[in-house]
Design goal:
Pfam families: FGase. The chain is of the alpha/beta class and 269 residues long. The chain has helices spanning 29-32, 37-42, 50-53, 116-145, 183-193, 210-215, 244-267, and strands at 4-7, 16-20, 63-67, 148-156, 171-174, 200-202, 222-230. The protein is globular and about 55 Å long.
């Protein structure tokens, strides 16, 4: 089983890499039967179609890495020791989740849930290979350009009451309180994302997950930004079906934002 898919740039590369860790839907055959079939067939916590939204990126010179496994197998955007990234009493699923975002059990029984040995096995086989591949891609781009921006792409339901009681903003840019990227990159991203009709929040309620915080090292010329977006921006209100018209409006903003980030990367240091 391929753990991830890399889509190379179709024009000369630029120093931007897009990571899509939560759009995968696959389960390794040896553990697939441990999950409730009904839950596995629905995969409510999946960042549906995010990779489709960014299909334009290779034509800008941007490389994409997308995970193929479901986040219920291993959550690539969690701390490997399941240390919580937030302390505000929201529901936080672990590195190997046992519930969905609403607290519903995803395994057939408690005996099917991963024990410490199984968690370590999944870290070794599924988690760290994704990180090592990102490290390789970053190193290649940094060697060529001297600096890199990692853009971690996500989406979430319009409302998840276990995280916050009110609906989410249209988009949320996260950079761990401006620690993971150069200020000019953050400013460019915010200005361009806000240039249309979308409501864009900054570091609230998401500051960027483990990927952003792990790789974002501006002092080493590796910058990282996370973009979380509301699923109804590009899907029907049922948050199941891809909506081409809505998606095209989002893609226009994303493309403009990334184009300006490419220019900003040339000047920030």
């Amino acid at each position: 089983m391929n753990l991830f898919k890399i889509t190379e740039a179709t024009v000369p590369k630029v120093p931007i890499l897009i990571s899509i860790p939560h759009a995968g839907t696959q389960f390794p055959v040896e553990i697939k039967h441990y999950y409730k079939k009904k839950m596995r067939n629905h995969l409510d916590d999946t960042d549906w179609y995010v990779h489709k939204l960014y299909e334009f990126a290779p034509s800008l010179g941007i490389t994409i890495i997308k995970a193929n496994l479901s986040r219920w197998v291993i959550d690539l955007n969690r701390d490997p020791k399941s240390i919580p990234l937030y302390t505000d009493n929201r529901l936080i699923t672990a590195i190997t989740p046992i519930t969905d975002f609403y607290g519903n059990n995803i395994y057939t029984s408690s005996s099917s849930e991963p024990d410490p040995i199984e968690i370590q096995r999944r870290l070794d086989l599924y988690y760290w290979p994704y990180y090592r591949q990102i490290e390789t891609l970053i190193a290649d781009l940094k060697k060529k350009f001297g600096k890199v921006l990692l853009w971690d792409a996500h989406s979430i339901r319009h409302l998840v009451s276990t995280i916050q009681k009110k609906p989410f903003p249209d988009m949320i840019l996260g950079n761990n309180d401006q620690k993971t990227a150069h200020p000019q990159l953050i400013l460019t991203a915010l200005e361009k994302l806000r240039s249309k009709k979308f409501e864009v929040a900054h570091n609230t309620p998401f500051k960027g997950g483990h990927i952003t915080r792990y790789f974002g090292k501006p002092a080493q010329n590796v910058h990282a930004l996370q973009l979380e977006m509301n699923k109804i921006l590009y899907m029907d209100d049922n948050e199941i079906t891809y909506n081409t018209k809505r998606a095209s409006e989002v893609q226009e903003v994303l493309q403009d934002t990334l184009q300006h980030l490419i220019r900003t990367m040339k000047t920030c240091s």
